[in-house]
Give the backbone structure.
Amino acid sequence: MANSTPTSGNAFTQLLITILEPAAEAVTVANRNGTILEANGAVEKVYRLKKKDIIGRHPITLCPDTPQWKNLSQTIWKAINTTGKWDGVVINKELKNSQEFPILLRTRKIKFEGVEYVISWARPFPKKTPFGLSPREQDCFDRLGKGLTISEAAGELGIKNSTVMTHLQRIWSKTGETQSYNTAAIENLAVRCYEAGYDHSMKLNQEW
C-alpha cells in the first residue's frame, strides 16, 4: 500500500520533475506536510539556492524568521489544505548572506494514486513595476482587484485589515488615483496597470 505521506522522492515525483526540468519557472514537489521532495534546476536561479539545500526542507524555512512571514506561511498552508491552492508574493532569503528578495508563487495540491502532493511554480518578482508598487502593495491590489473585501484580502495574506488599508492608501498615492475606494475604482486602476505593462500574479495566473 502506498505511503500516504512520502518523505523522499519516488518514481512519480521524479518523473514529474523530469518533465518540468526545462521550465523557466522554479518547480518544487512537496508532500502534504510541505517537505520538499523534488525540485527542477530553475530553483537555483529563482530561489538562489542549490537543489541540495532545498530538498528535505519546508518552504517556511526559506522565508525570513519574522512573525509577519511566519504568519503568512501558516496562512498559505492553511489555504492549500482547505482550498488546494494559493497564489501571491512571498519573501525568501539567501542562506549565505540572509538577503531577502520577493518571488511570485503559484501553488496547487494534487492527488496521485491516493497520495497528496503540493506542486509550486515560482519566478522572480519583476525588478521594475508600473507605478513603483511594492511586492506587498501589489499582493493587496491583486486580491482587491479580484473582488475580495478588505477583510478577505487580509485573511489570505495573514495581515490586519488596517495594514491592507495602509497599502491601499499607498497604491492610491503612487498611481495618482482620485476616486474613493470601491470595487469599480479598483477595477479601473487594474486596467490602467495592465495597459502600463503590469505583470503580476493576477495576469500570470492566466499564462501558467
In short: The chain is about 45% helix and 20% strand. Residues 130 and 196 are 6 Å apart (CA to CA). Confidence is low (pLDDT under 50) at residues 199-208.
